Amino acid sequence: MSPAPPSPGADGAFLLLRVIFPHRSDRCMVTDWFVYTSGPGTPSLELLIQRPNPLDVVSRCAGVLSCGDHCLVVDPEWRFHDDDWMKFHLHIFSSKTKRWSNKVAKLGRGMEAFNPFFLPTKVLCVVRGGSMAWVDFRNSILLLDSVPGNCPEVSLIRLPPLMPINNVDSGGSPDGPCVDLVRDVTCRDGWFKFIEMGFPYLDPNDAQLNRGWEATMFKRKIRSDNYWQWEPCGTVDSASLLPADSCVACLFPEIFDCNEHKLALNNVVSSFPTLDLYCDDVVYMMTKIKADDPDGWIFAFNTENNRLEEISPFSQENCHLHRIYLQCDLSKHLMNKALDVLASRRSGGGNGSGTRRTGVEEERRWWFGDDEE
Fold first, then answer.
1. Separation of CA 343 from chain center
2. What is the rounded CA–CA span in Å between residue 272 and residue 261?
3. Among 92, 183, 214, 337, which is 20 to 30 Å from 79 by CA?
């Protein structure tokens, strides 16, 4: 089994997991999909049944959408027909009916500019129980409305052009350099938010590489009359950042100049900016001494006051440069459940001896297999 099952997405109480089995039944590789449900009731892990046609497999683009007491797993597929007309198909699994269904989405605004090389690497829940988005960091966002309804509609939102320093012309081909290293998109409170970082001081001919970076942020309303316009909403330069009091004890020589009493982020490799789901001013980045190091740190920056707020170390089993972290809506859901339990106990409705377990306690038992005394 793969050592770290990737999570393509989460929404509310539901988490979608992709697990790769390298060898099974004389086949080179098999991918299974699971839906983890944290409640209500006892948590469960359900294997996603195969689509009706045995030749059809769930793609890497699948995402999950909470519909209250159940969820939908949505797997999009775009096909160009003989008349060069595109149809946008949706393969949808319902955890309520345990069945797959198929829909064809109406082509909405901007779809005339759809790039057939569209390669999404992130799925977002835009409106719980209604809308989802697939993001190709190089090109655009596919916004899918009314997913559970009878007439879903898909529209295209173009991302801002690449920074000149990041703009390597690939002729619209997916073979161009991966831009996941320098871009991220999220959505919150009716807005899409976008960030891109670049390295304006990097000179490969300089023996002392300056890996300092600049990042620019944009935003736009999810529902906007202008599907192409983004508003700049801030910039941050690694050279202007200061350490917050909360992270002073975690500083180490490679990132802090003791003589100058300031951060020295130009000495480390920073990549994979990740916008916080719940706070507009927080950005996470993965940082290493060298790009091929297996160990590194996750930095949390506050872009409003230009502070390095938190530092968290990580260690991975291989040296590949890829995003090793994913902010997940399930964490927020479980935290809200825990707060509800605390509020109930403080108001006199807490668990006494011999009473029924709360959902959080059931969660703990499910994950760790232990029982509370």
1. 30
2. 27
3. 183
